[in-house]
Design a protein that fits this description.
CATH topology of chain A: Thiol Ester Dehydrase, Chain A
Largest sheet of chain A: 5 strands, antiparallel
CATH topology of chain B: Thiol Ester Dehydrase, Chain A
Number of strands of chain A: 5
Largest sheet of chain B: 6 strands, antiparallel
Shape of chain B: elongated
Distance between the termini of chain A: 5 Å
Radius of gyration of chain B: 16 Å
CATH superfamily of chain B: Hotdog Thioesterase
CATH architecture of chain A: Roll
Order of helices and strands of chain B: EHHHEEEEE
Strand order of the largest sheet of chain A: 1-3-4-5-2
Oligomer: heterodimer
Number of domains of chain A: 1
Strand content of chain A: 25-35%
Structural class of chain A: alpha+beta
Chain lengths: 151, 142
């Protein structure tokens, strides 16, 4: 089924606050094999001017994923989970995520288009602190394979 | 919150140190657990091949994370990254053997922008084929 283009611009409620833990950052950094001291060593992170260890640049997907799923799998949108792959990902940073941050993500459907028989949907996630300080914006483009043009 | 690389010290064409990232099944399992992305095609060969893939494939976000290390290791301060984006153009296939897959990443200064900003263009390949498209980072240099 082709995706419903009327969903472009639709915004969903903010996700529940995500409290970023120091050990979670270390676990994520280890999972990508990244031993940069800024992700592991509090003193090294402080020497760079941060209050605690910072998270690797792709860590915000951990926070945005659930919020974006709310938008992408809105039943009225018509996205079939078994057909989707991650096509593009982008991050725009105001600052890195720091251990101790309590972050919320507000998802918005930015675009829906068709290309080569596939439907593509771009979902933006605005990630900010609970007090409203912007941290990072994530853009995920999800490809629904072979669904364009179906009714 | 300052990069260890100076804006005045780079020009278009300046190469960043290249890196190789070996990815074995255990790395995919670790990434699944740490990220919360348990999509079955990243750990179950039976299902992966049933849906038409050659084998289990790495998470696109794991490939993106690996490629980004070429930039953040060069910067010194990973917080000097302003923007980072990729297209996942081809999956990284990770066979169940002692070697797994290897992702080779290189980076070059593609443009010098205003306000101390520089655009880095990344190339990521596995088995000689490009796996990321339009992989670019914008960084703020000292």
């Amino acid at each position: 089924m082709a995706l419903n283009p009327e969903f472009v611009g639709r915004t969903y409620p903010a996700s529940a606050p995500y409290l970023v833990g120091r050990e979670k950052i270390r676990e994520f950094a280890n999972s990508i094999g990244d031993h940069n001291p800024a992700f592991h060593d509090v003193e090294a992170a402080r020497a760079l001017g941060y209050s605690d260890v910072i998270a690797p640049p792709t860590f915000p997907v951990v926070i945005s994923m659930k919020a974006l799923a709310t938008a992408m799998f809105d039943p009225e949108l018509g996205l079939d989970y078994s057909r989707v792959v991650h096509g593009e990902q982008r991050f725009n940073y105001s600052r890195p995520v720091v251990a101790g941050d309590s972050l919320v993500c507000v998802p918005t459907i930015d675009g829906i288009r068709s290309a080569a028989g596939n439907d593509l949907i771009t979902v933006r996630g605005e990630i900010s602190t609970e007090s409203g300080e912007h941290v990072v914006t994530t853009y995920a483009t999800i490809v629904s394979r072979g669904t364009a043009g179906e009714n | 919150m300052t990069a260890s690389v100076r804006y005045d010290d780079v020009e278009v064409g300046t190469q960043l140190p290249s890196k190789s990232f070996p990815l074995q099944r255990v790395n995919l399992v670790m990434y699944a657990g740490a990220s919360g992305d348990f999509n079955i095609i990243h750990w179950n060969e039976r299902i992966a091949t049933a849906v038409g893939l050659p084998n289990v494939i790495a998470h696109g976000m794991l490939t993106m994370a690996s490629a980004g290390r070429v930039v953040t290791d060069w910067l010194g301060d990973p917080g000097a990254l302003v923007e980072y984006g990729v297209r996942m153009t081809r999956p990284v296939v990770v066979p169940d053997d002692d070697r797994g897959a290897v992702v080779e990443v290189s980076g070059v200064v593609g443009a010098k922008l205003d306000d101390g900003l520089v655009r880095i263009d990344l190339t990521a390949t596995s088995e000689g084929q490009t796996v990321l498209g339009k992989a670019q980072a914008v960084v703020r240099l000292a």
